[in-house]
Here is the input.
Amino acid sequence: MRTYTAHLKANATPVLVPEGFSIAAAQFGPFWLLAQRAWIAGVLALCAWAGIALLDPPGMAIAAAVLAWAQGVFGRDLLRWSLTRRGYQMEHVLAARDEDGALARLLAARPDLATGQI
Here is the structure.
């Protein structure tokens, strides 16, 4: 079972964000954040990667590994922060096998979302 947070905004589709480590965020870093529309966090991560590129080779490898790990661990939290800045509110915490199951549980708990009467 995975845990998801449901973020809701009036007249918008609910957004489900899974909990836990994000391999994609660790691998693609700022580009993953930018693809998720987390603009501020993505630009700051891009600046951090640019700063790491200025380090000497031994320090660069260690700093790059630490930053990749941190983005994997905190990437979803940065995504939640970005959703909050865009006006979404975290309404529910759901447990399900996959995202479709989490959406089904959300619609069972909030039938008004299925009819668009938020």
About this structure: The mean pLDDT is 92. The beta strands are 2-8, 15-18, 89-96. The first strand starts at residue 2 and ends at 8.
